[in-house]
């Protein structure tokens, strides 16, 4: 498990109406805030004492986080090997890459216990409160074990009583999925898988 970063600095995308932040410690989208009222439905965050024992020392569950490799608790043998709940990606430090412009951020992460590498592109619309996430996953274990993929969002703050709802466009295969479709006011995710 990697130690918590001393001064985590989120990746930040902003337009005139919206602020979006991604925490590289766990790769979670932690802020999708309409300006200027300050409501952030992704303010949810577990404290260290709330994290499962096999996730201690890793990133907290927060905002909208990725569950890749598995969703839920690993087996006892996987726990003994150091596998955290919901896979390594939600628990490790991600690396930022240079974005194409001020409305796009790029990042990547590798989960050696899972045998997976991931590249993510987050794009905030230049004018509207909408963003798109594209994730490309590469399985480095031939022929590659089956994997589970999901994402978890729990509304926080004034929206904490609302049911979490989202749209996910999944398309397993050898080539990246087509880009996400735009829908005003919604965050859409496009997930693509590559083998080998």
Automatic annotation (TrEMBL):
The keyword Calcium applies. Residues 173-196 are annotated as: Disordered. It comes from the Bacteria. GO terms for molecular function: carbohydrate binding. InterPro entries: GH-type_carb-bd. The keyword Calcium applies. Keywords: Calcium. Its cofactor is Ca(2+). Signal peptide: none annotated. Monomer. This is Aldose 1-epimerase. It comes from Cesiribacter andamanensis AMV16.
């Amino acid at each position: 498990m990697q130690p918590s970063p001393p001064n985590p600095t989120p990746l930040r995308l902003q337009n005139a109406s919206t602020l979006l932040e991604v925490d590289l410690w766990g790769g979670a989208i932690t802020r999708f805030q309409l300006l200027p009222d300050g409501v952030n439905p992704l303010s949810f965050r577990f404290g260290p004492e709330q994290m499962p024992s096999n996730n201690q020392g890793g990133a907290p569950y927060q905002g909208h986080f990725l569950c890749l490799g598995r969703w839920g608790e690993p087996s006892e043998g996987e726990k003994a090997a150091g596998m955290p709940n919901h896979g390594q990606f939600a628990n490790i430090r991600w690396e930022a890459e240079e974005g194409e412009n001020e409305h796009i951020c790029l990042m990547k992460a590798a989960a050696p216990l899972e045998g997976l590498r991931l590249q993510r592109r987050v794009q905030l619309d230049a004018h509207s409160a909408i963003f798109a996430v594209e994730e490309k996953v590469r399985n480095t274990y031939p022929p590659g074990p089956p994997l589970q993929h999901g994402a978890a969002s729990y509304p926080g703050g004034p929206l904490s009583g609302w049911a979490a709802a989202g749209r996910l466009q999944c398309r397993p295969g050898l080539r990246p999925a087509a880009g996400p479709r735009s829908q005003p006011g919604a965050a859409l995710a496009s997930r693509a898988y590559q083998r080998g």
